[in-house]
Amino acid sequence: MNTKSLLLLLVALLLVVVPAEAQCAMCRAVLETEEGGQTAKGINNGIVYLMIFPYLLIAIIGIAIYRSRKKARQEKAL
């Protein structure tokens, strides 16, 4: 798979957003008793927001490892 198609796939996956329910069962039970559900929506959005950072860190580390190996391979070829 070349770089262009990989980048296109990554952009497509980032644009396709599926709503996720990230609350645990206890949080959901407590928050569903409130009227309006605004607090539940806010907590759910906060949980999803906090879930992003571990994936970003893993991606950054993966990119750094990829680049360092690619650079080492190029230096070895010279």
What would you say about this model in short?
The chain is mainly α and 78 residues long.
Keywords:
single chain, 78 residues, mainly alpha
Number of strands: 0
Distance between the termini: 25 Å
Portion in helices: over 70%
Taking all residues together, what is the mean pLDDT?
83
What's the shape? Answer: elongated
- Count the helices. How many? 3
The domain tally reads 1
Low-confidence segments: none
Element-by-element helix/strand order: HHH
Strand fraction? under 5%
SSE-based structural type: mainly alpha
Largest sheet properties: none
For the CA atoms, what is the radius of gyration? 20 Å
Structure description:
The protein has 78 residues and is mainly alpha-helical. The protein has one domain. It is built from 3 helices and no strands. The chain has helices at residues 3-15, 25-32, 38-77. The longest helix is centred in the last third of the chain and has 40 residues, at 38-77. The protein is elongated. The chain starts with a helix and ends with a helix. The model has no long low-confidence stretch (mean pLDDT 83).
